[in-house]
Amino acid sequence: MSAFEWMAWTAPTAAFFLGIAGLLAGMTVWQWISPTRLRQGLLPMPTTRGDRLFIGLLASAFLHLAWLGLTPFSPLIALGLSALLLLIVMRFG
After folding, report:
1. What dihedral do alpha carbons 40, 41, 45, 46 form, nearest 10°?
2. Is there a domain that residue 54 lies in?
3. pTM to 2 decimals?
4. Domain membership of residue 80 as a residue range
């Protein structure tokens, strides 16, 4: 059995993980170019860019789980809502 044979690597799965890796790489470069500082936004605590990214990704995961469990609609709608949610948390959080 090869190292990756046990997991079902589909194109959407690979795109998801590549997207997360791209976000992390982009945030690393951004941190290197312009170091972050704590700021207070809509969230009830001061956060850095990395904190807001983590909170946004967690919120997106919960939104997807709720969407899949509670609605019969396409997950692509949840993807759009999650992207919007992540942008709002990153900008205003």
Report:
1. -30
2. yes
3. 0.79
4. 11-92
* Count of domains for the chain: 1
Return the bridge partners of 39, or none.
47
How far, in Å, CA of 65 to CA of 88, rounded? Answer: 19
10 Å CB burial of residue 50 (0-12, 13-18, 19+) is middle
- Mean pLDDT for each consecutive 10-residue tract of the chain (93 residues)? 69 84 93 90 89 92 93 91 92 86
Residue 78: inside a domain, yes or no? Answer: yes
Amino acid at 18: L
Nearest to 36 by CA among 47, 26, 44: 47
Burial 21-40 (b: 16+ CB within 10 A, else e): eeeeeebeeeeeeeeeeeee
Rounded to 5 degrees, φ, ψ at 63 are -60, -45
Nearest to residue 93, comparing CAs of 23, 21, 36? Answer: 36
